[in-house]
Design a protein that fits this description.
255 residues, alpha/beta, Rossmann fold, 10 strands
Length: 255
């Protein structure tokens, strides 16, 4: 039985929003290629039912998080969607309560960090507009940029990649996490040369990992595609049979 992977904020093909449909297709194809059964969490539907059925949660990339969630005014945040914030933060909370594997990609990594913000306001925030020097992390038009990151020895990320060291990654973001903005209990598992956190994880959770690059973009960060495979394997270890509610299997198949 393939593990059921919920992917947040997907758009249907032919729905009239090509700029969102193409990333949705990439996420779906990458998870299916890694051996998962995709349960799309469509942007325009409730998710509560499906959050009880999935074996793993993938928080996808996208626009910026409302900075009021980490106690700041807007100082460069773009494409904020309050409904997306509400649904993804609730999805993360429920997935963590259930103890299922969670992977955050780009915005998804930032959601994980902000969602685990400390009550005293220390950590769990973002740099709203990264400097573009010495590394430009932003899009080059519609294309990814590329730079090197250093993966920390002894981290889960290093284990999934086959070892610590330097890896070339793709980059499509203008916000980020730094060490002083990391949520409590998290550790940074990768850094870029300008000290932007490129990977984060929670020791002892099982699988709760965020990466700033985009492993779903096939061929752009090929070593990091191993992270997707590791995520799906971890979800497979937690996979449960269909929960027994009438019509669940047919409903998932119909999505």
């Amino acid at each position: 039985m393939r593990p059921k992977i919920g992917i947040t904020w997907l758009y249907r093909a032919g729905g009239g929003n090509p700029s969102e449909e193409e990333p949705s297709r990439r996420y779906t194809a990458s998870v299916e290629g890694a051996g998962g059964h995709v349960v799309p969490l469509w942007h325009d539907e409730p998710w509560d039912y499906w959050l009880e059925e999935i074996d793993g949660l993938l928080l996808s990339g996208g626009g910026d998080i409302d900075p009021s969630r980490y106690g700041e005014e807007n100082r460069g945040s773009e494409k904020i969607d309050l409904e997306r914030d509400r649904k993804e933060f609730a999805a993360f909370t429920r997935a963590r309560e259930r103890g299922i594997p969670i992977l955050g990609i780009c915005r998804g990594m930032q959601v994980i960090n902000v969602a685990c913000r400390a009550g005293d306001g220390k950590g769990g925030s973002l740099v709203q507009a990264l400097s573009r020097a010495p590394i430009d992390h932003t899009l080059d038009g519609e294309n990814s940029r590329f730079h090197w990151v250093k993966v920390v020895s002894g981290s889960q990320l290093a284990q999934y990649l086959g070892g610590a060291g330097e890896y070339r990654v793709n980059s499509r973001h203008h916000q980020g996490v730094t060490a002083e903005r990391l949520a409590p209990d998290f550790v940074a598992s990768a850094f870029s040369a300008d000290d932007v956190v490129e990977g984060l994880e929670v020791p002892g959770y099982g699988f709760l990992l965020g990466v700033q690059c985009h492993p779903e973009r096939s061929g752009e960060a090929p070593e990091f595609e191993a992270v997707l495979r590791a995520f799906v394997r971890a979800a497979g270890e937690h996979a449960q049979p269909w929960c027994g509610r009438p019509g669940t299997e047919a409903k998932i198949a119909a999505r």
